[in-house]
Design brief:
Blueprint (H helix, E strand, L loop, with lengths): L18 E4 L7 E5 L2 H6 L4 E4 L10 E3 L2 E5 L5 E6 L4 E7 L20 E5 L2 E7 L6 E7 L6 E10 L6 E4 L2 E5 L7 E7 L4 E8 L10 E3 L7 E3 L1
Antiparallel strand pairs: 1-2, 2-3, 4-5, 5-6, 6-7, 8-9, 9-10, 10-11, 12-13, 13-14, 14-15, 16-17
């Protein structure tokens, strides 16, 4: 659980119980769907999808029935519909580093991070134009067009992981156990602050951090 200092006053309802499993951080196209976490633990697969393009990284998102992921060896975001088995949109993220140019501290081609919160869909990445520092863009979930962008002064390579709560990006200072939530950037005010909040991590390291549900303060680690 995240320290109660970080809370959300926004409300967002999401009732999905499925689990989607992508078994590598690069060069793969197979996604396995499980009806719930019990089936996932038991290995009972309900459906298997073969994506049209391979992915890169671990920071993908399932949102309103579609998978949003970083296309292999590119800065292109792909929107894939589980229902139709087709690509609904794909778009290059201008100037975004990819293929371990600006990953999180653990590497793993984690340059481009797609996430969502109560306010919509976001992409976190870095560019040469912003000196390798974290860039936040809000994107349209239908067209993948960038709606607005914020340039921060926090080095992407020094970020362990990040997650959004109500339009604020929180960044950990490491991917290892003992990490802390160290930096927060508000897209509402375009301001930042350095913070010092213990980030409970029962694993050796994390490669993906997300809210359990938008509107909650619990963060899922993978």
């Amino acid at each position: 659980m995240l320290n109660s200092t970080i809370t959300s006053t926004c409300v967002f309802s999401l009732s999905l119980t499925q689990v989607w499993y992508m078994d590598s951080y690069t060069n793969s196209k197979i996604v396995r769907e499980f009806k719930n976490t019990d089936d996932f633990v038991s290995g009972v697969v309900s459906r298997t999808y073969s994506l049209p393009f391979k992915w890169e990284g671990t920071n993908h998102l399932v949102y309103n029935g579609s998978l949003y992921y970083n296309k292999y060896q590119s800065n292109i975001i792909v929107k894939y519909s589980f229902e139709t088995g087709s690509v609904l949109a794909q778009r290059a993220l201008e100037f975004a580093g990819f293929h371990n140019m600006y990953p999180y501290t653990w590497g793993g081609y984690s340059d481009i991070d797609v996430m969502a919160d109560e306010l919509g869909m976001w992409v976190v990445y870095a560019t040469n134009q912003n000196a390798g520092n974290v860039v936040i863009s809000q994107i349209d979930p239908d067209t993948l067009h960038v709606l607005k962008t914020w340039n921060t002064e926090y080095s992407k390579r020094n970020a362990g992981e990040s997650f959004m709560i109500c339009g604020t990006l929180y960044i950990t200072n490491s991917h290892l156990s003992g990490a802390k939530v160290y930096y927060a950037y508000s897209t509402k005010t375009s301001t930042y602050e350095y913070i010092d909040i213990p980030f409970h991590n029962q694993y050796f390291h994390i490669s993906h951090a997300r809210l359990q549900r938008p509107g909650e303060s619990a963060v899922r680690l993978e």
